[in-house]
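Forum > Structural Biology > Help requests

Title: Can anyone predict the 3D structure of DUF835 domain-containing protein?

Hi all, first post here. I have the sequence for DUF835 domain-containing protein but no way to get a structure on my laptop. I'd be grateful if someone could post the structure tokens.
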Amino acid sequence: MNFIPYLNFFSRLVLFVAAVYKATKTREKGWVILSIAFFIFVMDIENYILKPLGITINHNVYQIVSKIPNFYIGILTLGAAFMLKYGSIKPKHILIVGTTLIVSYIWIFAMAIGLFHGNFTLASLCPSWILGGSLLYLSFVLCEYVIEKKSLQILFPLGLAGVGILNLTYPFTREIEWFYPLAFFGAAIFRFIAAVGALKMIIFSPKIPERRIVKALELGAYWTEDERKALEIASKMNTVMITRRYPVKNNGNALVYWITKVKEGEVKENVYAISPTKIDILTDLIARAFRVGYNLLYIDAVEFLILENGFKATAKFLYTVKDIAIGNNGSILLVLNPKVLQENQLKIIEREFKKI
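Reply #1:
Sure, ran it for you. Structure tokens for DUF835 domain-containing protein below:
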């Protein structure tokens, strides 16, 4: 099994390249942080991987420096997961990351003064569990990004979860001579699985609309109570529909996201079911659609989004997608019943959207 160290190194490199490509395509801070974490994964200080590559580490410092990458990767992975899930680092997240950093420093100090008396299992517990736990949390967060649960996209979080579990067991299995090569082999396989899923998630894109020129609505942000009029406008443009209505048919120039809790994934060609709580993912999907030629964002699910996410989060979502639409020379049209909104909520909508 002499090929395993090379396979392990190459699998880390593939996962790093996939993350960098994702960060380049999305420009999201979370993916940038994750790319840095995966780069350190490539440069991991592990004799089993480094010796076959012709790299040796001074034995006197190896026991300490071999644990440091785990702390770095774990902390960066936590930060990336928080950015992907919440869109920003909140004070409680800073507290979690800061506490992890402090624990990491204390653990390194304890190893430096010989507190563990050379016991590998004890010395490895904290760094391995921080790394494994952070990868498991990241895999949970990434599951929310998967639109089609039955597609290859799901391999990304599943692969990372596998690597995370192996790291949780690492302090107890690394010293088992016959088992640890198998564990490294398993980790390499899981990383390849994760990389395949990451690439599938990256290349997921909506079908290019059939028509690109027709504009029944001038560039801008609008709202209306007249659903029939709104649908008539939408039928004449390359429309992204965020709707509560089950899409019975699709006329070929619409990309439909059916907002529902009963189903997820592809319903039919260019029609996808998505949970109302996944508005961050919905924002990314809308941005992709406008990049390939869609020029109208139609939303008739505002009330349902408010019910599931609260008005503040929904308003933030609407402002963001409005900027996406207008920034791509498109328009946004909301269909809503003003009677279901509070007076101050309606005023906030009217401040950004013109009634037609």
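The chain has two domains: 4-203, 220-355. The longest helix spans residues 120-143.
Shout if anything looks off.
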